[in-house]
Amino acid sequence: MQTVNSLNTLKQAVEDLRQSGRIALVPTMGALHEGHLALVRRARELADHVVVSIFVNPTQFGPNEDLGRYPRRLAADEALLEAEGAALIWAPQAAEMYPQGFATSVEVGGVSEGYCGAARPGHFAGVATVVLKLFNQVQPDFAVFGEKDWQQLAVIRRMAQDLNLTSPCVENIVGAPIVREEDGLALSSRNAYLSAAERRVAGRLNGLMRQAIAQIEGGGEVSAVLADLDTALLAAGFASVDYAALADAESLAPLAALTGSPARLLVAARIGGTRLIDNMPVGSNARC
Ligand SMILES: Nc1ncnc2c1ncn2[C@@H]1O[C@H](COP(=O)(O)OP(=O)(O)OP(=O)(O)O)[C@@H](O)[C@H]1O
Ligand SMILES: CC(C)(CO)[C@@H](O)C(=O)[O-]
Ligand code: BAL
């Protein structure tokens, strides 16, 4: 396994890999955990070689967000990826990705607009721009993203569809299931910010979501169930709830054939300075 941090060395390394098979890209911001490693394993099933990008992308962070304190642990990440059989790590500096004079942004309309897009203005333009750059730099046959970032996956698929991407094509943008802790908390690099008390609160999120889903599937009125979920999250100790919403297939999964589920409960909530997101499918009885 090799780590490269300049575009020239990346180009050569990718050309060498392509000689002996297909490439799957796993884009990440590093501080890797089992959720990321599950993406790498999925990528290995899809292709002969796995390239993992590690780049804390400044353009997807808002001015008051955690860019400065986002965990950076390249040496530990390298050890984990070596053990998983990744072939190449692409770990550029910001100046390599955004040289002097950089002036382009990819805006994906529609799917970017609610939920995290509303709570984090500019976030999905930053994500779409960097992901399109990563796709162009690596030209993978496949790319694997986690379903934890459900809206992000929809945004990237929309971009791939709308811009007729071929490396990878939209069908080869693969979603991988959420990896969770025992109490249901989705693994996330940002969980490292949580104090022990906050971690206990965070552990309530998924259980409360499951309760709400059971109520909706049982025929409960959606807006009342969502209002109760909001209240329950605050009562459990969350400081605020950015959204607790039921997204139908049309609003968030424009490429429904690729995402499967008819509806999805999406939640983003904050504890102290930490913002957590989660989502789960809701059965076909749900009335959106
Ligand atoms: N628990 C998880 N299960 C499955 N995929 C995950 C999980 N956590 C992250 N991913 C996926 O890993 C990829 C890289 O995400 P990222 O590096 O931002 O990690 P993260 O843990 O989501 O960090 P953050 O705290 O920034 O949300 C994304 O496609 C994301 O959806
Ligand atoms: C896709 C991504 C690597 C782009 O910076 C990031 O948004 C993430 O880690 O999910
Ligand atoms: N996993 C999504 C990256 C972000 O929150 O900026």
TrEMBL record:
* Organism of provenance: Alteraurantiacibacter palmitatis
EC assignment: the record states: 6.3.2.1
Enumerate the InterPro entries for this protein. Answer: Cyt_trans-like, Pantoate_ligase, Pantoate_ligase_C, Rossmann-like_a/b/a_fold
> Member of which family?
Belongs to the pantothenate synthetase family.
Q: Which UniProt keywords apply?
A: ATP-binding, Cytoplasm, Ligase, Nucleotide-binding, Pantothenate biosynthesis
Protein name, entry field:
Pantothenate synthetase
What does it do?
Answer: Catalyzes the condensation of pantoate with beta-alanine in an ATP-dependent reaction via a pantoyl-adenylate intermediate.
Residues binding ATP: 29-36, 146-149, 179, 187-190
